[in-house]
């Protein structure tokens, strides 16, 4: 028997076709509560996949550390760019 079609609002982003993308985005919840809920689900998914495992490794912690390094570099880029053109004497 054929599976019933999945509603567009219940589809994952990777399952949405390019023509359906604007409609799918319009159905998302962009209220502060919806954004906080999405961040919470993302954190819970990351935690359960990489941190809360039976045999843990350095994968999850190293990703958090790499993200911190990238974000701190982005935040201080303007200062580093200014320092790059300064002559030392």
TrEMBL record:
Family annotation (Pfam families): WRW (PF10206)
Source taxon at top rank: Eukaryota
GO cellular component: mitochondrial inner membrane; proton-transporting ATP synthase complex
Keyword annotations from UniProtKB, A to Z: Acetylation, ATP synthesis, CF(0), Hydrogen ion transport, Ion transport, Membrane, Mitochondrion, Mitochondrion inner membrane, Phosphoprotein, Transmembrane, Transmembrane helix, Transport
Main location: mitochondrion
Keyword field contains Endoplasmic reticulum: no
Family matches, as InterPro entries: F1F0-ATPsyn_F_prd
UniProt-annotated location(s): Mitochondrion inner membrane
Gene Ontology biological process terms from the UniProt entry: ATP biosynthetic process; proton transmembrane transport
TM regions (residue ranges): 57-77
Membrane topology reported for the UniProt record: Single-pass membrane protein
Protein function: Subunit f, of the mitochondrial membrane ATP synthase complex (F(1)F(0) ATP synthase or Complex V) that produces ATP from ADP in the presence of a proton gradient across the membrane which is generated by electron transport complexes of the respiratory chain. ATP synthase complex consist of a soluble F(1) head domain - the catalytic core - and a membrane F(1) domain - the membrane proton channel. These two domains are linked by a central stalk rotating inside the F(1) region and a stationary peripheral stalk.
Subunit structure: Component of the ATP synthase complex composed at least of ATP5F1A/subunit alpha, ATP5F1B/subunit beta, ATP5MC1/subunit c (homooctomer), MT-ATP6/subunit a, MT-ATP8/subunit 8, ATP5ME/subunit e, ATP5MF/subunit f, ATP5MG/subunit g, ATP5MK/subunit k, ATP5MJ/subunit j, ATP5F1C/subunit gamma, ATP5F1D/subunit delta, ATP5F1E/subunit epsilon, ATP5PF/subunit F6, ATP5PB/subunit b, ATP5PD/subunit d, ATP5PO/subunit OSCP.
Family, as annotated: Belongs to the ATPase F chain family.
Name recorded for this polypeptide: ATP synthase F(0) complex subunit f, mitochondrial
Organism (species): Grus japonensis
């Amino acid at each position: 028997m054929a599976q019933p079609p999945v509603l567009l609002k219940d589809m994952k982003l990777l399952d949405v076709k390019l023509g359906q993308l604007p409609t799918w985005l319009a159905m998302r919840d962009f209220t502060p509560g919806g954004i906080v809920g999405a961040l919470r689900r993302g954190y819970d998914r990351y935690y359960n996949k990489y941190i809360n495992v039976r045999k843990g490794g350095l994968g999850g912690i190293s990703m958090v550390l790499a993200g911190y390094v990238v974000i701190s570099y982005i935040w201080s880029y303007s200062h580093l760019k200014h320092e790059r053109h300064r002559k030392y004497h």
